[in-house]
Amino acid sequence: MTGMYAVQLAFSDDTARLGLRPGHRERLAGLAADGRLLAAGPWDDDSGALLVFLVDSRAELDEILAADPYYAADGVSVTSVQEWNPVTRHHALDGL
Question: What is the pTM for the complete model shown?
Fold first, then answer.
């Protein structure tokens, strides 16, 4: 059964993550193209980011996170991973 997961990141002042960001964004584009990422982006103040995944299981999400070195980079902390069940949503999400 497909589940929606919200992943929240926090960024520190360490800029080490910036070198990994182009590859990270390329991976995100691929995940979006194959329907496993609904949206992703940083907070306006660049203190962190929110990503919303649509995957078959938490195990699949864990594999996605483990395959991208950005999530383990200095300056990046995964602060929350929550399965999400939106009860009010835009029609674009119907059927998800």
Answer: 0.90
